Amino acid sequence: MSSWILVGRRRDLRQGGFTLIELLVVIAIIAILAAMLVPTLAKAKGKSHSAACQNNLKQLQLGWLMYLHDHDDQLVPNKDGDRGDANWISFPGSWVEGNAELDTSSTNIVKGALFPYQPSAAIYRCPTDRATVTDVSGLLRTRSYQLEVWLHGADQFISVPPYVRKSYGSLRYPASIFAFIESGTCDSGSFYISPFGYGYAPESTWINSPSDRHSRGSNLSFADGHVEYHRWRWPRSTNYGQGAEAPDDVADLRWLQDRLPKE
């Protein structure tokens, strides 16, 4: 009699299991769900990185504002130039020093005039920036951001409108003037861009170019302290001095030029 009970239990176990077809169906459903979720998770991760980047820029911009309060309304210097070998560097006394393409440590960030106001080297780099130091394989750059050159930048352009601005009081409509920007051509601390409408030769050229690492967009801060995300119409380049020829590329350049200081 016990043998009949044992056989019955074995039959119950066989009837309660999964067939191979059922297992394959379950695996297929899981694979489909995973395929649907991966883009969503990637998008969410991208948004979180963009938010972290915006937070970096917010802190840099607040440091920029704190500096002028301690220096009689004077903007933090943004001086750079050729060090003699065609590599442009930011000079001592500027908001940062050195060249992000060449610096192998955060020393030139720490030496910058802005660092005492936001003493964290980590906020100078976007978490999605995978650019590496020139000729040093695998070493990530320590800085992703540049400061608009017209904000107390290179004096060699002093005769070119809209002129270099050295004090906060000289800025008209600070909320419409961009300051820090994610740069795809990040070398010295100065982001070079020619104004439009003054007949200056490079007015249709990306001297420096923004990045497009956030869904073809980048983050930038403004002189009043706020931060914005802007999506570019045209893929951005990592080449210096790239002419804007395609209509969408020209529109991108004009959009940024419209956010320079006004006379």
Can you put this structure into words, describing what you see?
With 263 residues, the protein is α+β, with helices and mostly antiparallel strands. It has one domain. Helix content is 31%, strand content 12%. It is built from four helices and nine strands; from the N terminus they run H-H-E-E-H-E-E-E-E-E-E-E-H. Strands 5-3-4-7-8 form a five-stranded mixed sheet, with helices on one face. It has a two-stranded antiparallel ribbon with strand order 1-2. It has a two-stranded antiparallel ribbon with strand order 6-9. A hairpin with a 4-residue loop joins strand 7 (217-222) and strand 8. It starts with a helix and ends in a 6-residue tail after the last helix.
Number of helices: 4
How far is it from the N-terminal to the C-terminal residue, by CA?
104 Å
Rg of Cα set: 27 Å
Main sheet makeup: 5 strands, mixed
Mean pLDDT: 87
Physical arrangement of strands within the biggest beta sheet: 5-3-4-7-8
Count of all domains: 1
Summing up helix and strand content along with how strands pair, one would put the structural category as: alpha+beta
Count of individual beta strands: 9
**Helix content bin:** 25-40%
* Beta fraction: 5-15%
Low-confidence stretches are 1-14
What is the string of helix and strand elements? HHEEHEEEEEEEH
Give the overall silhouette: globular
